[in-house]
Amino acid sequence: MTTYAVRDSTTMLRRQLRHLSRNLSTILMLLAVPIIFLLMFVYVLGGTLGDGLSGGGRRAYVNYVTPGILLITIASAIQGTTISVAMDMTGGIIARFRTMAVARASVLTGHVLGSVLQTLMQLIVVLGVAVLVGFRPDATAAEWLATAGLLLAATFALVWLAVAMGLATKTVEAASNLPTPLLLLPLFGSGFVPPESLPAGLRQFAEYQPFTPIMETLRGLLLGTPIGASAAVAFGWCGAIALTGYVWAKWLYNRDRTR
Amino acid sequence: MAISVTGLRRSYGDQLVLDGIDLEVPEGTVFSLLGPNGAGKTTMVQILSTLIGADAGEVRVGGHDVAAEPDRVRAAIGVTGQFSAVDDLLTGAENLRLMADLNHLPRVEGRRRVAELLERFGLDEAAGKVAVLYSGGMRRRLDLAMSLIGDPRVIFLDEPTTGLDPRSRRDMWQIVRDLAGRGVTIFLTTQYLEEADQLADRIALLDHGRLVAEGSPAELKRLVPGGHVELRFADEQALAAAAAVLGVAPDEESLVLKVPGDGHVRTLKALLDRLDAEAVEVDGLSVHTPDLDDVFLAVTA
User: Fold this and answer.
1) How many CB atoms lie within 10 A of CB A176?
2) Residues 6+ apart with CB under 8 A from B266
3) Residues of chain A with pLDDT under 50
């Protein structure tokens, strides 16, 4: 049925996009998380944190925190992916798809493409809010393009991970909780304060966890801070997470769920 | 044969759910698999519809082996499960359009089929409402309509009326009869004996993973004794006279005489003729054939 793989995937993507249009309240909730983080960190803590960072106050802190907020945006958006995959798997519709001559992978492809589009739209909204509260990037066109590429890669990787998480859970409630730790990962990295300011154990974690090189690269591209090896490590992490998520999801999806 | 199964076995862990099933369903007939909860009916449908594999045995549906050519089988079947497999977030029309697309129908043809099915299943008015707002009966009808988009030759209905109110159940029965009238082969599981009796050409009784009886509804009913004609009389004299003529022990309290017999018109007429010849007045008469409940209790006891 490979001949229909593209057509079936497009059909499934259309289904996901319709779901999104019926689920606007969920999307708004997922979108509220990074925006609340942004406003809280900028207006409540930003003045002091900014002074501590560079003496630049709130204005400097908006710039510092935005890359971390963008990753929180992705981590929040993929909770929707996990929930919608789990809803599909626990409902009867997936059994129907499996008894039809439909390209098997198209269900997952539809989820992945739909979620990537949804997350990218949320990233644009959050970036807009950041600019409104004072985010002033100095990126060139090429740097913006690279930023978009890295955000896309990170989104793609985390969406596959979210799909696998949705397949791994037995209930929708469990599915909604599973990706939550990802939301906190930017906090235990270079998202909100420089890792050098953290105590020893936490600092090592912050330096070696996947979100830090991604945030460092985004910061470099958008604000001109040094990037160094971060870019290669960032893309490496995205590739590794995407592959893990993909293999895990495929395995979960193809196993006989009744055994 | 639309469906043929030989030596089918399937277990979950160390629990044997299907234990050597053999059955054949000729094309264009309605076959009903009847059994209590947990008998293995759903597992049977899941295997026949390529959802899960068998541990042993050969299963062919629509002329294709389910293990070797699952996609050929899938292209030939429609499945409506026990729990509605509709997309709650899509409208009725969108659900059907999704199925048309997944059946790879050309756009125009797909639209035509969707409109036709919405009308045939009485869903045109609700076509624009999301399925989560549908009543139980409407969901089940939508579910079945979705199975029919690809014009399947074999349809599996897994407990299609479980949980429906009597009216929706009758609607569903009529839909099944219409389908059968179009020459579609129907494999129906149910725990309602009346449903199997109403719809099926042949019935198999499944109990603890084995087929314990198989035949037409009439054949199955013949398996159990208990068919009788009940004669009621106005008074004890008439009762006694009839008992003497027919050689049956009377039930004096209720003024009723139970005469063993199959209730065929000819034997019934002969019976009444004998009473008439002796001028015995019969007040009322009813024929009792064993129903499938009797059969089921008899063979699974």
Assistant:
1) 16
2) none
3) 1, 259
Mutate to test the interface with A, among B66, B102, B134 (most CBs of A within 10 A): B102
Which residues from A are below 8 Å from B when comparing CB atoms? 1, 4, 7-8, 11, 14-15, 18-19, 22-23, 91-93, 95-102, 256, 258-259
The pLDDT of residue A157: 97
Q: What does each C-alpha distance from B114 to A93, B84, B95, B117, B190 come to in angstroms?
A: 18, 18, 9, 5, 28
Q: Say yes or no: domain B3-222 is CATH 3.40.50.1240.
A: no
Query: What is the tally of structural domains in chain A?
Result: 1
**Minimal Cβ distance to A1: which of B71, B98, B130:** B71
CA dist., res. B69 & res. B151, Å (int): 19
CA-CA distance, A105 to A93, in Å (whole number)? 15
Tokens, residue B85: 């497999």
Closest residue, chain B, to A21 (C-alpha): B89
B226 backbone φψ class: left, alpha, beta (φ>0; ψ -120 to 50): left
pLDDT of residue B285: 84
Spatial separation of the C-alpha atoms in residues B280 and A145, rounded to whole Å: 104
| Interface membership of B90 toward A (CB under 8 Å) | yes
Residue numbers in chain B where pLDDT is lower than 70:
83-84, 225-226, 262-263, 292, 301
* C-alpha dist (Å) from residue B178 to B101, B165, B172, B175, B289: 25, 20, 10, 5, 27
Decide: A57 and A51 in contact? Cβ < 8 Å.
yes
Sorted by sequence, the CB contacts under 8 Å of residue B79 that are 6+ apart come out as: A95, A96, A99, B45, B49, B51, B85, B147, B155, B156, B158
Q: Is B98 in contact with A15 (Cβ distance < 8 A)?
A: yes
The answer to the question of residue A259 being in a domain is no
With vertex at residue A176, the alpha carbon angle to CA A173 and CA A177, rounded to the nearest 5 degrees, is 95
pTM summary value: 0.81
Determine if residue B193 is left, alpha or beta; phi over 0 gives left, psi from -120 to 50 gives alpha, anything else beta: alpha
pLDDT of residue A259: 42
Q: What's the distance, CA A65 to chain centroid?
A: 16
Partner-chain contact B89 A23, CB within 8 Å: yes
What is the tens place of the pLDDT at every residue in B244-275?
888 877 777 778 888 777 667 887 888 888 88
Chain B CB contacts of A101 below 8 Å: 71-72, 74-75
- What pLDDT sits at residue B262? 67
pLDDT at position B78 is 92
Task: Say if CB B95 and CB B148 are below 8 A apart.
Answer: no
What ipTM did this prediction achieve? Answer: 0.85
- Which range of residues forms the domain containing residue A196? 2-254
Domain map (residue ranges) of chain B? 3-222, 228-290
Residue A56 lies in a domain: yes
A chain contacts of residue B77, beta-carbon cutoff 8 Å: 99
